[in-house]
Amino acid sequence: MQAAVLTKTTELTREEWLEARRQGIGSSDAAAICGLSPWRSPLAVYLDKVGDLPDAELSESMEWGIRLEPIVAEAWAERTGKKVRRRNAILQHPVYSWMLANLDREVVGEKAVLEIKTTSAFGRDAWADGAVPDHYVIQVQHQLAVTGYDRAYLAVLIGGNHLECRELERDDELIARLIEIEAEFWARVE
Fold first, then answer.
1. 169: which residues sit within 8 A by CB, 6+ positions away?
2. Please, are residues 117 and 154 in contact by the beta-carbon 8 Å criterion?
3. DSSP assignment of the chain, as one string?
4. 61 alpha carbon, distance to own chain's centre
5. pLDDT in tens, 86-131
6. What does R_g of the chain's alpha carbons equal in angstroms?
C-alpha cells in the first residue's frame, strides 16, 4: 500500500505546517509517545495535539539542523553514490489516517527514506560503533510504516565536521507494536 498525501508543504508557513501536523501522529512524535524521546514527553505531545500547548520556538540547534539538512543530504549522496529527492508533503498511512510522516528525503530507485540529523560533538557516543539512538529507530520505523518502504538510511553530522551513515531495515514486529501504542494514544487525543 502506498502512503496518501495529506497536504503538500511547499506553500505552507511554519504555523500552517504545525497545524497540519496536529491532525495525527508524526514520526518525530512517535518516540515521545513511547517514552523514549530525550526532548518531549507523551503529555507534551498530547497537549500539542489537542491545541493546549503553544507552538514551540525553533531553538538555535534546530535552526542549524534545518539549515544544514541539504548539505548533509548532498554529502550522504556523494559518499554513497545514491540519489535523493525531497518529498514536499505530509504523508498519511493508507489505513491508519492518524499516522503521518514528513520525510527529509526519499532515496531514488529504492523504497527507502533518508533521515538527516545533526548533533554536537557531545552526541558522538550515541552513534559509536554503528549504533542508532532508540528514539531515531522509532522515528524511522514510523516513517517506514507510513510509506510502506523497506529501509531507512540515517546521515548524522556530528560536531559539524564528521558524517556518520547508518542503514536500518524495516522491522514489521516493531511497527506492529508502534501501531498499537500510537492507536491507543490517538484514541485518547480524539
1. 150, 151
2. yes
3. ---EEEEE-TT--HHHHHHHHTTSB-HHHHHHHTT--SS--HHHHHHHHTT-SPPPPPPHHHHHHHHHHHHHHHHHHHHH---EE---EEEE-SS-TTBEE--SEEETTTTEEEEEEEE-GGGGGGGGGG---HHHHHHHHHHHHHH--SEEEEEEEETTTEEEEEEEE--HHHHHHHHHHHHHHHHHH-
4. 16
5. 999 999 999 999 999 999 999 999 999 999 999 999 999 999 999 9
6. 16
Q: Write down the residue that cell numbers 514520526 correspond to.
A: 27
Distances in whole angstroms, Cα of residue 118 to Cα of each of 68, 77, 81, 151, 159:
8, 16, 21, 20, 8
- In this structure, which amino acid lies at residue 56? A
